Structure formats: structure tokens, C-alpha cells
Amino acid sequence: MKYPLNTFLAIVSMATLTHTAMAGPLMNSDLDRDGYDNYLDFDTDGDGLPDDFEKDNNFNFIGSRDGGRDADFDGFTNAEEYRAVTDMFDPADNPATKTGPALQKLFPQMGNNAEYLGSSLAISGDTLVTGATFGEFENGGGGAGNVHIYTRQPDGLWQQFQILYPERDASGKDFGQDVDLAGDTLLVGANHEDMGAEASGAAYVYTLVGGEWQEQAKLSHANADDYDYFGYQVAMVGDQALISCPYCLDARGAVYVYDRDGSNWTLSDVLTNCPVGDICTFGISVSVDGDRAVITAPYYSTAYPPGKAFVYERSNGVWQQTAELVSNMTLEPSYYGSRAVLSGDTIIVSDFWEEWTGSGHGNAYEFVLENGTWVEKSMFYAPDFGADCVGQGIALAGDKALITGRLESPYRGAVMVLERVDGVWTETDRVFSDSTSFNTDLFGWTAALDKTGEQGMAGAVWDRDTTDYGGAVYVMDLSQPE
User: Fold this and answer.
1) Is the residue at 52 inside a domain?
2) The CATH number of the domain where 448 resides is what?
3) Residue 354 has pLDDT above 70, yes or no
4) How many domains does the chain have?
5) What are the distances in angstroms from CA 428 to CA 304, 402, 405, 417, 477?
6) Predicted pLDDT at 23
7) What mean pLDDT comes out for the span 434-457?
8) For 102-113, how does the pLDDT look when each residue is reduced to its tens digit (9 = 90+)?
9) Domain span at 219
10) Which long-range contacts (CB under 8 A, 24 or more apart) does 323-326 make?
11) In whole angstroms, what is the distance from residue 148 CA to residue 288 CA?
């Protein structure tokens, strides 16, 4: 069944954590024997229910039986219902009765009260990567950020594989601000890292070696100034990396292009597209698909209303601008270009502060390449949403798209799932977080789709199932027939 964009469709959904116990004697400091001391573990008893979730629901967070019990006597254990994001206290709501896409919910294995898992997302094949920009170092402390890597198991469930940490020298790096994954290469942005200037930024390159992700290079830019934010966005295509620096050059912004030769990375180009003396923040959003890229400059003030998106094409390794995308439907105040995604001959650009239906409501705009010209085709908005930042997260893969509103209901967040048939987009599902005790998940802070459009993801950076603002990632199986 298809639903128009102005239909409010609530879909009950839910979560998974795969727990693997490690061999060895039971230690009070590591009750579930997973290799993490209890003070670093969000599931101390290893029953598949996070500690804070158990505390909120009067379960025993150091007793491993709760996950295997069936609180509502519907034939599904509490852990099974948590993994499926259904209500374990309502016998009518269970994995057998749930509608909409099947979900898993991934939460951080370790961290503090401001982990922010879901700050960034990337997926390639059976590997999923997400940033936690306030995550702790391996042995606790710091809050510099970390990156969690999950792999898909034969049963389709995602299991944590590895956690990456930055160099341990300071907190507040925002390591994991953005991530991109291409085959056996992973880029991680750390736009607050001090590299010769305060918060000038850095980007890390990792490669898969012997079944483990290892750091290959650390990239930074010359002539760094305070708060350049190099590494704000990262994109990988073949042996080339694009690293954005939206506040470089006195906030004109730039995108740095690096080429790889073996394990060596060399700066080959710097893309800029802002008049001298203007403030454009070129590079706030970067999306690449093959030899085409879209880069946004939401503060490009010579436009009215402000904001532009630029299309680049690559030939023989060199990027050249080929088009400017400016919507005919934006209003002021505007933040057009807050996000942009590219898939083939389609680009979606969002403006999550745009005011078509209310202050801070947000919209997104579709452009399609026809006969060599980019043509604006559609505007996406949800009239039933309030001031919800529609377009905070967007993702595109062929004829499927995700558009989020992180402030819906309020601050709980929602994800609209859309499908295009014969050039017409229709909303097929709307997914909400499972937040109950707290209604401030910011679900939809980020969104991503795999190349097939069958696996979708959304970050909920304020999710509190683990601890205050620990964050979570919802993985949506969109391959099921409607």
C-alpha cells in the first residue's frame, strides 16, 4: 500500500544487539564476559537489554534472566521484542504483528553520557560504519569520538566488529563527524582536531588488512586557521578522497582532493567556489557517485535566497564544475544546501530551515539530468510535520530515498521512506523511534542507504536506552514487499 506525503503513518519498529560471551571465568568486573569492564559496558549482564532500559522498566540490569523472559506472554522474549522494536509489555504488539520495514537497533558498546552514536553513517556491502562524536577512548575518558564498525551476519543481523579511536592526546576532536566507506577503504572526519591551529581539523584513512581495520594515513591541510573544520565531510571514490573544509579561507570554504598511490596520499587539487570576501561555507555537504559530485554552499549570499549546490564532473582525475543548482521554490530565511545526495542522474538538496509550512519546517528538492541539463522536478515536504527540520538527513539510491525530520513529535524524529515509479515519488512508509520514557531521540539526525536501496539506516544521536545521549542506529530492511 502506498501513502501520500501528507499522510501520517506511524510504524512501530525496533532494535538489536548481538551479544557474544567470551571464554573465561566469570568476573564481577565483567559480568557478561564480553571483554568490557562493567563501568564501560551498556549491557552489564549480557541479556540483550541495555542497562538504562532495564533500569527505566524496573528490570535487574545485573541479572541476565530478564532478556529471556516474556513480560507480556505473547510468545516472544523481552530480548526478541527489543531487537524487533516492539512493545514487550503489549501482547498485541510483537514481531509477528508488526508492519513496516523490519528493524534492528544498534547501540554503543561503551562510552559516557554523551556518546552520540549515529552522528554519521556509511554502508557498503556487509559493512556498516557509524560515528559517535563524543565517544570515549578505548579505556575510558576523553570524549574525542570513536567509530563503530558492524558486519552483517548470515542471519541478516548486524554484529559489532571493531571500534576505531583517534590518537589519544585531547578530547573534543569530533572523530567520526563524517564517514565514508568504499570497499576496503574507510575515511573518517575529525573536524575539531587541533592540527597546528585550534579545531583546524583532520581526516583519517583506514584500510582493511588481515581482517582488521588499520590506520593508513592522517590528512590535514596547510596554512590551517582556528576553526577551519577540515574533515567536516569526507567522500571516497576509487583511489581519490574528497575532504571538505567549509570554514577555510575565511569561511569561503574549500574541498581538498587527495590521490592515493599505494599507501601514499598526495594533495592533487583544492576546489573552491565562492567570491573573495564572501562567506559561502562551500563544502558543508559533499556527495560523490562515480565521476560526478555535488557540493553545497548554504551561506552563498550572492544568491537570493542564499545557498547553492554545485555539480562537478571528473575527467582524467580532475574535477570541473558543470552546473549550479538553485531551487525556484526556496523562501527566506533559507539554508538551502544543508544536505545534498547524489545517485546517478538524480540529486536531492535539502533546506531544513525553509518555511513553506512553518518556521524551521524544512524541505528537499529533486533535480534530474535531462538532455544534459539539470531540471528541478519535485519538492518534498510533510504538511503534517511542525517545525521539524525536514531534510536534516537525506539518502538516495536509485529509485529509493529517505528524508528525515529530526524534530518531529517534538525531538523524537521520523524517517520518511520514498519510492519513485515512472518519475513520481510516493511515501511508502514512515518510521519512528521506539522512544517512550524520553521523547528526545533526534531520530533522523543522519540517514543512509546502501547502493541497492534495500538497507536503510538512521541515526538517533540522543537515544537514551544506554545512557544519556548515548545514541543509536536503526537499520531498516527495505527489501520486503509492501
Assistant:
1) no
2) 2.130.10.130
3) no
4) 1
5) 34, 10, 16, 6, 13
6) 28
7) 83
8) 778 888 766 555
9) 102-477
10) 323/373, 323/374, 325/294, 325/349, 325/367, 325/374, 325/376
11) 23
